[in-house]
Amino acid sequence: MSGTRRQGVVDSSPTVVAGFVAAYVALGFVGRWTIGEGTTFALIWPAGGLAVLWFLLRGAGPRSVDTALLAIATYAVNVVTGAPYDIGLLLVVTNVAQTLAAVALVRRYCPELWGAGGDRPLDSPGVLVRFLSTAVVATGLGAALGAAGTSLLAGGFDGTGAVLWLGRNLCGVLMVVPAGLLVARLRSVPADEPVIGPAGRPELATAGAFTIAMYALAFTFDDLPLAFPLVAGVVWVGMRYTTVVSAAYATLNGIATIRLTLNHIGPFAAVEDPQVGALLAQFYIVTIVVTGLSLSTGLDERRRLEAEVRRNEQEAVYQAELLNSVITSMTEGLTVIDDTGAFLMRNPAASEAMGNGPDGPLPGLPSLAGTFADGSPIPEGQRPSQRALRGETVRNVEVLVGDDGQGRVLTISAVPLPRDEDQDRARAMLLFHDVTDDYRRREDLTNFAGVVAHDLRNPLAAIDGWTELIGDEMEAGEFDPSLLRDFVDRVRSSAGRMGELVRDLLAYATSDAADLELARVDLAPIVRDVAASREVEGLVTVRDLPPVHADPVLVRQLLDNLIGNAVKYVAPGVEPKIEVFGRVEDGLVVTAVADNGIGVPPGEHEKVFTEFHRANTGAYEGTGLGLAICRRIVTRLGGSIGARDNPGGQGTVFEFTLPSGGPD
What we know:
The chain has about 675 residues and is of the alpha+beta class. It is about 55% helix and about 10% strand. It folds into 5 domains: about 190 residues, Arp2/3 complex 21 kDa subunit ARPC3 (Orthogonal Bundle); about 140 residues, no CATH class; about 100 residues, 2-Layer Sandwich (Beta-Lactamase); about 60 residues, Orthogonal Bundle (Helix Hairpins); about 150 residues, Heat Shock Protein 90, CATH 3.30.565.10. It has a 6-stranded antiparallel β-sheet with strand order 2-1-6-5-4-3. α3 runs antiparallel to α4.
C-alpha cells in the first residue's frame, strides 16, 4: 500500500474532501435503509463502493487523513441508524480494511486505469477482469473479517450472513466504482467521440422503454419465471453503447431492483426465505453489472482497435506514398530483382539510366551489367546482381551498358533483400548512377594530363638542350654572337609555348569566376585589336558586326581564342584567311568566325567544345581548352556556340550568339 497519499486526479481542497465525506454518509444512510425484513444487515452497501472511488480519486493511503475520516463516518452512520457499538466498531474495521485493500489491489493490478495512476478508461475486457478480481478479493476480505467478528460477538458462525456480507459490498463496489471512474474521467478528460456512442439517443430511449416494460412484466407477475427478459435490455445496451452508458444503465437497474425488492415487489421478494431472496437480488445485480460491462468494454475495445487499424492503415498508405515519392524522385536508379531475372520494382531513373526514358523497358540482367566500364567482360557469376542474390553486398562497380558507340557507364551497388519464403525466391536491390560524363571526363583528364606532359616536356627538353649548348660554347671559349642569339631565340620560343599553356589553363579556371560587367560592346574594334596583337591584320576581314550586350573583357577573350585557332590550324604552306561577320536574329547577334583551316573531323563538331578534347593532334600543339573556354564564356553571357563546315570551301565556321546591344 501507499504511504500518506498519492497524486490524486481531483482537487485536494478541504471542500472536495468534505464532499466525499458527505456523499459517503448519505450513501451510508441509503444502505442502512435497505435492511430487509428477516435480515440484520443491509441488502446493499453503496457507501463501500463510494469509499473505494473516494480513495482512488483522491490518491489516499492508509496514513492519510481520509482513512481517519472514513472510519469516523462509518462508525457514525451505523451507530446513528441503530447498530450496537461493538457492531459499529466491527463495521469500521471491515470497511476501512476493504477500502484500503481494494485501492491497493486496483493500483497494483490495474495501473493503466485512470484514477489508479494511468490515463486509460475502463474500456477493455482484460482490464475489466482484473478490476472484477480485485473487487472480489477486497470484498471477500471484508466479508471474512465481518464474518469472523460477528462469530466472536454472537458466539456462532453464520455462513449465509457471510455470503450476504460479500454480496452487499460487492454490489456496492460494482455499482459505484466503474460508473464513478468513467464519469469522473469524462469530466476531466474530454472524450474524442460522443459519450453515448454511434447508436444515438433515439435507440437509447427505445432500450430504456424496453427495460421499463420488461421490469413491469417481470416484477408484476412475480409468480412466473420472467426474470430472463431483463437480461435482454442489458445485452442491448452493452452491445450498442459505450462503457459509461452501460455502467450507468446497470447501476440504474440495480437501484430499481433493490427498491422494488424492498417494497415486496418482484420475484426476489416472493422468495419465502428473506435471506435467500436478498442473496438472489444481489446475484442478479452482480450479473447485470458484469454482463453489461463485459459487453460494452468489448465493444469499446473493438472500436478502439478498429480506429487503431484505420490509423495504421492511413499511416501505411502515407508511408507507401511517401516511399513511392522518394523512390520516384531519386536521381539514382533503383530496381528490385529476384533470382529469375524478373524486375519486381523500378523507378523512372532506372529506365533513364539505361537510355530508354523514364517509362521505357529495362533490359535483361545479362545486358544490364555484363561488361566492365573499360569494356572487359564480367566473369560469369560475378555480376553485381548475381553476387547480391547470393547474399553479398556490392559497392560501386562501374559497368558499361549498351553498345560501344552509345554505351553508358553506370556505378552499380547491390544489396541482398530478405528472401521471399512463399515463392522461395532470393531478392536483391540494385542502385545505379549514371557516371558516363564523369567517366569520360576522367578519361579526357587522363588524356589531357598526357597532352600537357607532352607539351610541357618538349619545350622543357628544348630549353634544357639549348642552355646546355650555350654552356658548352661558353666553356670552350668559342663564343659566336650570332649562334648565341639563335640559341636564345630558341629558348624564348620554348618558354613562350610553356607560357601559352599556363595562360590557357589559367583562363579556363577563371573564365566563369569573375563578376560580369555588362555593357554595349562593339565587336569590330575588338576584332581588329586582336588581329593587331597577333600581327595578322592583313589576314582578318571584318564585315557587318552588330554590337552586343556583354562583358567586354570576356568578349575579347572569346574572339582572341577563335581567331587564334583560325590562325593556328591551317595546312602547311596555306596562308590563313579569316572572316568575321554577323547578323541580328530574334534579339540576338549571331557572330561567325570563318576560316580556311584544316577543319574539324566528322562527328567532332560538338566534342571540340568539351574540356581537354583535341580534334587534331600531332603537328598542332594545344591544350584542348581554347574552345571549352569559348563555350563557358558564351554560356555565362546568355548565348550559345557551335561549329560547322565552311560552305565556302575548306575550313570551319564558328558561330556564337549574344544578346543584341541595340541599333548602331
